[in-house]
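Appendix B. Extra example for self-study. Work through it before the problem class; the solution is given directly after the inputs so you can check yourself.
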Amino acid sequence: MLLTEIDHVAIAVHDLEAAIAYYQEAFGAEVAHREVVESDGVDEALIKVADSYIQLTAATRPDSPIAKFLEKRGEGLHHVGYRVDDCAAALASLVEAGGRAIDEAPRPGSRGTTVAFVHPKGSFGTLIELVQE
Ligand code: CO
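Solution. Structure tokens for the complete assembly:
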């Protein structure tokens, strides 16, 4: 089994501060990490849940993939990040099995991780992110 843990569940939101405040007030959550990933057009906040994270994700610009997702689908579940020991190996296994990669090769993600995205078409409607710490 190449997937070792749920790394994060990403939720697309319009207002990041409001979403953070909700998790703080409703569940006493604390933000473990904040980061703007300008190359992806995302502003994200990570809330730790055991060894995994909830990743609240907002758009930094109107042409970012998150902005387009919000426009088309509204707020909600955006992708599931699975932790892997070796992102390149997991991606190769996926492609060999007929899966559809978005990233042809692993690339830098947030918090210094190495990531690759897998297209929801071919993954039963769920955008998958492979995350190597
Ligand atoms: Co992610």
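Self-check: The chain is about 25% helix and 40% strand. If your reasoning did not lead you there, revisit section 3.
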